[in-house]
């Protein structure tokens, strides 16, 4: 964790009257795992969408490796080394898991070869290697539309990793994953990303996951960053506990009666 | 299923040759079927991307008129086929730059609109196109060889068959390449392609240009076979016919369009001969049965008979 990899400065974006980004300043350091937490509608996904080129901020700048990427097209940003995964997995549903991965590998190298097969050994080997690392080898031949949510989620992330990004943005990587599998999934994910030396920014609602895997936490609130720092500090902050964790960690706990 | 495809293709080609020898009048029908099958390959490509073009008769008609216009100057079937392919490809690129931005119904209707614009031009510019009278195409030399009418018809049949096989092989390779698989990705997850660094519009545009090229080739073969071109080649029903054949044959493989085209032409000829007033109804019933009982088309049916699964 040394130099600044991604720098957002003064990002603003409003949808109608809703301020999804209201002055976001954030520096993502190379090598770190940065968790983004905050209530629904705080603008967490908007930040990912702006960084990956899907949305253009109305003002402010995003620089990546010192280069301004604000307003660039998603596919140009991908080529610079920023990949993303999705809250709702975006897989090619009529293709098998292996084909999905192979297509991601192929698109990294350029797909404009109309006569050589996608099934060429090099792509298949790399796809299998990835599936192996993600623990998905058993379902390599399964069509994407037949997967359960957890596998779908992992395959979605694996496709992003296949692009060999330096920075990976993950939108709720553990949502939809069964509670019993969650830690194992994140464990796998963290290992793969550390091996590949990928810097990760991930939106997360599970504070146990955040505490265990994040180097830093950014708390989003109404389009602003309300707190930023190591998980132990931030999660212990009474204001954060009240506004974010209080709601999320014990959703079933009834509110204390008024005195 | 993919493994039996080449065997089936060879069997189908052999059956066509046998039929053309046994019944000379079938040679005409089968050449037209091959030409339409080649054009329908393009529809099948676009179906891979989940897009239906209701205007691809435009490229068929364009290819046919290229032959009719250039035949007096460029009097050789091989050269004219090349000219039609290149011309249709350029037209496809021009129109594709515009229509590849659209999807679904908008894609379909814009193609239909382009097709009907061409139809109107062919109808109205009488001093150039001779309107609905059409233009006659004379028997022409093939690869430098002057041929009599029967030899010429055989030559065009042979070229159509060779092109069908060759283009079928090329498109089969294309469909299983990353480019072809990305095309199928447009149907299910276009946004993902962009986030993998792949320009989805470029992928669709390439397929569109290919579809225009095969449309032009099909049209040129039709002009050389029927030896008369009219604006009706570009009428919307002609576009509908291509989609009809694509669905009848099944979009699963490159053989589907040819199965569909052969079935379509044969049903049409036999039904028209036996029940002159009801042949369209018979064709409609055939399509209805295929849609209800064999959603994968004739190709899917062939696959099930062979014990494999359609793609």
TrEMBL record, chain A:
Keyword line: ATP-binding, Nucleotide-binding, Transport
Xref: Pfam families: ABC_tran (PF00005)
GO MF annotation: an example: ATP binding
Domain ABC transporter span(s) in chain numbering: 6-247
Keyword Oxidoreductase: no
Cellular component, GO, one term: plasma membrane
Transmembrane annotation, as ranges: none
InterPro entries: AAA+_ATPase, ABC_AA/LPS_Transport, ABC_transporter-like_ATP-bd, P-loop_NTPase
Protein name per its UniProtKB record: ABC transporter ATP-binding protein
Annotated organism of origin: Neoroseomonas eburnea
TrEMBL record, chain B:
Compartments, record wording: Cell membrane
Predominant location category: membrane
Gene Ontology cellular component list: plasma membrane
Residue spans crossing the bilayer: 54-71, 77-98, 105-122, 154-175, 196-222, 242-267, 279-302
One Pfam family of this chain: BPD_transp_2
The keyword Transmembrane helix appears for this protein: yes
UniProt topology in membrane: Multi-pass membrane protein
Protein name per Swiss-Prot or TrEMBL: Branched-chain amino acid ABC transporter permease
Species per Swiss-Prot/TrEMBL record: Neoroseomonas eburnea
